[in-house]
Amino acid sequence: MLQFDFLKNKYGKELLIDLGRIESLYGYILEDDLHIITFYEVLVITKGAGTYSLDGTPKQLKRGTVVVTLPNQVRQWKTEGEVEGFSFFFEGEFLNTHFKDELFLNRFAIFDYDRPKIGFDLKEENLEKLLWTFDEVEQEFKELEGDSSHIFRSLLYFVLSQIDRYYRKNVGQEKEEAPMEVYRFKKLLDRNIHRWQTVQDYVKAMDIGKDHLNKLAQRYFKQTPLQLIHHRMEIIAKRELRYSTKTISEIAHELNFSDVSNFNRFFKKRTGESPKSYKVKMTDLKSN
Question: Locate the HTH araC/xylS-type domain: which residues (predicted)?
Fold first, then answer.
């Protein structure tokens, strides 16, 4: 499967942000080839129809559609006619470093792998507000100066805050500032899910009590820490079974299961079917 990494030296320096019009951005894939990006992307559609899928979950496209892609998600276009819009993409460290907060992105609902939707549709007046910002960023890229990175960070922060606000309203989530431990738990999940599958792994790393983490998770996520861990493991397992050429044994090993039978039991309990039957079903879907 194709994989695309961020071109850190595109502008002659480590400027970890870029913006382009998808209809003319060099190397941008609009065909239906499955591919992965290893950075964050905010996609805003200004014209077109069809679908855009992340890990097999489709979003219908139209003017005003916004989709946020997270690192290592498998994506696929199925366009109907010409599609136009903006792609605003960046490395996470670009913002985390600037705001001196390694948990910065974890505070946004749009960057949560457990989010209820991969995208939403903007009202026209809100779309116009974002397009004005993108025009400013585009102009800044044409006239790069020594302080351009500061302007990019400010404009990106504005765009992300606006999109996160619109997204929360769309899915019925209120913006609520949570304790630091909540964001840290999510960050640790993002980084260590392949190695840590027990609540004890996380409370040890966070140096907090198990009961305290459980109360926080139920308060802010409406789930227990273990449910969140298992959901993340399910997402990865499904992605690997559906898109990779790895064997079930290899996937079980990567997710740190002691043996394949334990992985089989885990997967069937979560999905109602065995890893083998799920993989066969997904293979049949791709063939049709």
Answer: 183-281
